[in-house]
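Q: Structure tokens for this one, please.
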Amino acid sequence: NKYAEVIWKYLNYRYGWYEAIKHYHSIIHWLVALTMLMGPAQTASKHVDNVDSLVELTEVTLILDDVEEITETK
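A: Here is the predicted structure, written as tokens:
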């Protein structure tokens, strides 16, 4: 990957080999953690959308039931 190579070369130039390894490790660790946290975050928004749809459907069903009850009593 070109980006990884450019980052490594910059870190090696800027900090030297030993410090570059520590910084590169920190970057990779941060990216892995971010990737792991993004999975549940993406599915959470889908879950919220599903719950919103369920709430709307329930509201419509209750309204229709009320309308049906009103029309039957008349």
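A few notes: The CA atoms of residues 3 and 9 lie 10 Å apart. The chain has a mean pLDDT of 87.
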